[in-house]
From TrEMBL:
It is an enzyme of class 1 (oxidoreductase). Residues 144-235 form the Acyl-CoA oxidase/dehydrogenase middle domain. Its EC number is 1.3.8.1. It comes from Pundamilia nyererei. It holds the Pfam family Acyl-CoA_dh_M. This is Short-chain specific acyl-CoA dehydrogenase, mitochondrial. GO terms for cellular component: mitochondrion. Residues 254-349 form the Acyl-CoA dehydrogenase/oxidase C-terminal domain. Its cofactor is FAD.
């Protein structure tokens, strides 16, 4: 029993102590308080029930509302709109602690903050912000982001603009939060002749006439957060529900670019940190392995995503994207494979935390 307690304490020390940023810069007091508050909540309310929620596919409604009361469901939303009015660092700290307690709950929180509220904050009118953000700050309601479609690259066709309403037809696939959402940001083509510039975004309440949900997917992980298709059949959307100017949906949809930028910047910062430690004549084995792993996998990820964005054009040899992908793939193999880097990192962590 004593050995088990020691192991649990060591693992807890690892998960709550492995924070390289705090080694480089001291967090502001407000952020330290936020992190500790979220950490305590995760340990007390999320970790003990996470396995059951996952096994039974149960949406954590009570916990989401409690997180809403803490301000976590609308971290960057100004206080006048009911949010916490904090910065992205605060959001990142909260997400780390919440996700440590329950990954599914973390997904629900992140989709509501980043994919639903985020675009409305950036592109919505003041009236839209009041209507579509304020009710989603408390955790009683959550939103979702309906972009992906099954087996095709183009977005839903709009049959017509009839009686001052857009009429949308199509299916959105693998939409996180869909079964529990009270609204969705839906992307659709409003002018095929303009290609990507003819894509628009719409705010659609849920439930809504012409909108139905497919079966809840039985996923490998994060099973307490719902994932399903959203089916649109002659779904009539008022003109005032368009998010941003007509044709601005492409800008809102380009989250692949954001993911690529995050991967590159993360790899760059890890590389710089390893270099700084070496220049300071400090131990840098773990950080060097992290940098190599992150940079090589970021290169493969970003070149792969570039091909996805370009579609068929990304696959032909006339474009540099396919060359970048071929070149990037070897970086996960030479000078120590990704598997070897993970072994090095794990070995260093075992020593550091005496596991």
């Amino acid at each position: 029993m004593a050995a088990l307690f020691k192991a649990r304490r060591a693992l807890s020390s690892f998960f709550t102590g492995c924070r390289s940023l705090s080694q480089l810069a001291e967090l502001p007091e407000t952020h330290q308080i936020l992190r500790q508050t979220c950490r305590d909540y995760a340990d007390r309310e999320l970790f003990p029930i996470a396995a059951r929620l996952d096994k039974e596919h149960v949406y954590p409604a009570k916990q989401i509302q409690e997180l809403g009361a803490m301000g976590v469901m609308a971290m960057e939303v100004p206080e006048e709109l009911g949010g916490a009015g904090m910065d992205y660092l605060a959001y990142s700290l909260a997400m780390e602690e919440i996700s440590r307690g329950c990954a599914s709950t973390g997904v629900v929180v992140s989709v509501n903050n980043s994919l639903y509220i985020g675009p409305i904050l950036k592109f919505g009118t003041e009236e839209q912000k009041k209507q579509w953000i304020q009710p989603f700050t408390t955790g009683e309601k959550v939103g979702c982001f309906a972009l992906s479609e099954p087996g095709k690259c183009d977005l839903s066709d709009l049959s017509a603009l009839i009686l001052s309403r857009w009429v949308v037809n199509g299916t959105k696939a693998w939409i996180t939060n869909s079964w529990d959402a009270s609204a969705a940001i839906v992307f659709a083509t409003t002018d095929k002749t303009l290609k990507h510039k003819g894509i628009s975004a719409f705010l659609v309440p849920m439930p809504h006439p012409g909108l139905s949900l497919g079966k809840k997917e039985d996923k490998l992980g994060i099973r307490a957060s719902s994932t399903a298709n959203i089916i649109l059949e002659d779904c009539r959307i008022p003109l005032g529900y368009m998010l941003g100017p007509r044709g601005s949906g492409f800008k809102i949809a380009m989250f692949k670019l954001a993911d690529m930028a995050v991967a590159i910047e993360g790899a760059r910062l890890l590389t710089w940190k390893a270099a700084l430690l070496r220049d300071s004549k400090k131990a840098f084995t773990k950080e060097a392995a992290m940098a190599k792993l992150a940079a090589s996998e970021a290169a493969t990820f970003c070149s792969h995503q570039a091909i996805q964005v370009l579609g068929g054009m990304g696959y032909v040899t006339d474009m540099p994207a396919e060359r970048h992908y071929r070149d990037a793939r070897i970086t996960e193999i030479y000078e120590g494979t990704s598997e070897i880097q993970r072994l090095v990192i794990a070995g260093q962590l075992l020593k550091e935390y005496q596991l």
